[in-house]
Amino acid sequence: MMITFSLRILVTVVWFALSVASMTCPVKAAFSFVPTTQASLAPMLERVLPTVVSIVVQGQNGSPPDTNASDSLPQQFSALSGDAGQQRGFVAAGAGVIIDAANGYILTNNHVIQNGDTIEVILNDGRTFQAQLVGNDAETDLAVIKIAADHLTALPFGDSSKLRVGDYVVAIGNPFGLGQTATMGIVSALGRSGLGSGYENYVQTDASINPGNSGGPLVGLDGKLVGISSAIIGPNGGNVGIGFAIPAAMAKQITEQLVAYGEVRRVQLGVVVQDLTPNLAKAFRIDIQSGAVVNQILSGSVAEGAGVAVGDIITAINGASVENAARLKNIMSAMSPDTSAKLSMIRHGSPLTITARLSMEGNARQTQIAGVGHLDSVILSDFETISGMGNKKADGALVLAVGEDSGAADAGLAADDVILSVNQQVVHSPEEVLELVHQSPSGSLLLGIYRDGGMYFLAIQ
User: Fold this and answer.
1) Do 66 and 208 belong together in one domain?
2) Is 188 among the domain residues?
């Protein structure tokens, strides 16, 4: 009895002490989901939502936007436009963001508007407009469209280079054609590549994004654009918390060219490179652990003229770090003709800097087109006709170079081969090769090639 009474007194005293402490010293929350003084994201979203548009594309010819690109990456990798039609006639939904209010320019994904006969834009205030295509680039999956409208609001570009894993972001789009929707998450990873598309430097996020989010903005808590939602990994194209956005820095550079020229005018350095691995660094007797190793230089290229040599290790371009071969490709993709590229390199263990002047005329004597996906280590060129095939003549894509230790090299593809078909579909140019590679499942790629007077098939895994 005495023990019970003492326990009651102890509990009462502790309760009273905690009550007084809570009144005099407010207890801080164990965690704050949003590290900001505001209690809600609503004020930021009220500024951002008027800049986001829904896009409805209709077409009769060709295929609809690629909503389920393949069943694997390695399992599922899907573009995000919401498809509601068939090949002979389709209606697809996506999103976009106003980047220039005065001129009505809207940034979105190329796969949202591809093959569309009409592009309808629905503003946040309910107004609808027919849009015109300004320019598009399949390699980065970006496009700019234009509407004639007043009272628009543009979203400012943020600095995606300052993003860190763990930063909070908000994805806004038109999932499943439901209308404008905002979801929140964090930056899960940076610099993602190897997804089988063209120029890759994705921001990965777990913000919930679904089919129909393509082209919509990914914004930071300051309400500035840090990415364009582009793809997801998930069963049947659904969200499992793994989404990818094109970083704003890349989008801004590409947008400037699309607005100016209607296309991206790329220059080629003219090198075939591979990642610097720890084993290669040890063999080169250097201390650095990242870079792009030059293993081939194309004749007549910018690199050859500037004095780049086989075995050079490129570590930076114009001060931007080159961590690997994919990073070099991305940096070069955003550079314009008539500019200079300051190459920071290691040669025979010593640092070296070379400046190369970039121009369309300064490319190799043959037009060079960098491969993507299964052909990401391959450089292609136009090839007009091939004689010696009986009474037939054919055109295709000439292979200028194949990177060592690549899947294409392992399959037997070599320089001077001519690609005549991709997955049993005849091709007539490097551009057609890349288009079919983009559409190819992530399993194997079947190439029909011409070599030494004969036709052969190669399967690249």
Assistant:
1) yes
2) yes
pLDDT tens digits, residue range 275-312? Answer: 898 988 988 889 988 999 998 787 778 888 888 998 99
Catalytic hit among 160, 188, 214, 381: 214
Residue 12 falls inside a structural domain = no
The yes-or-no answer on residue 428 being catalytic is no
* Residue 151 is among the residues annotated as catalytic for this protein: no
Whether residue 15 lies inside any domain: the answer is no
Residues 337 and 456 in one domain: no
Catalytic pick from 141, 206, 312, 417? 141
Same domain, 127 and 229: yes
- Phi (first) and psi of residue 435, to 5 degrees: -60, -45
Give the integer Cα–Cα distance in Å for 190 and 207. 14
Same domain, 222 and 111: yes
Q: Based on the fold, state whether residues 299 and 233 are members of the same structural domain.
A: no
> Of the candidates 354, 435, 420, 330, which has an alpha carbon nearest to the alpha carbon of residue 383?
420
Distance, in Å, from the CA atom of 239 to the CA atom of 243, rounded to the nearest integer, reads 8
Residue 419 within a domain: yes
pLDDT average, residue stretch 58-65? 66
> In whole angstroms, what is the distance from residue 30 CA to residue 391 CA?
79
Q: 133: burial class by Cβ within 10 Å (0-12, 13-18, 19+)? A: middle
Residues 252, 398, single domain; the answer is no
Pick the more confident residue, 440 or 56.
56
Domain assignment of residue 347, given as a range: 271-358
Judge whether 141 counts as a catalytic residue: yes
Pick from 66-80, 160-174, 208-222: least confident: 66-80
Contact (Cβ atoms closer than 8 angstroms) between residue 109 and residue 250:
no
Is the same domain home to 341 and 408? no
Pairing mode, strands 217-220 and 168-173: antiparallel
Query: What's the confidence (pLDDT) of residue 364?
Result: 47
Kindly tell me the number of DSSP H helices and DSSP E strands found in the chain: 9, 28
- What is the tens place of the pLDDT at every residue in 349-391? 999 999 888 876 445 445 667 777 888 778 887 765 444 444 4
Query: Are 57 and 186 in the same domain?
Result: yes
226-264 pLDDT tens trace: 999 988 876 666 667 888 999 998 899 899 989 998 988
54, 66, 81, 111: the active-site residue = 111
Q: Which of 29-33, 193-197, 264-268, 424-428 has the highest mean pLDDT?
A: 424-428
Statement: residue 12 has pLDDT above 60: no
- How many domains are contained in the chain? 3
Last residue of a domain, one of 239, 263, 287: 263
Domain edge (last residue) among 303, 334, 358 = 358
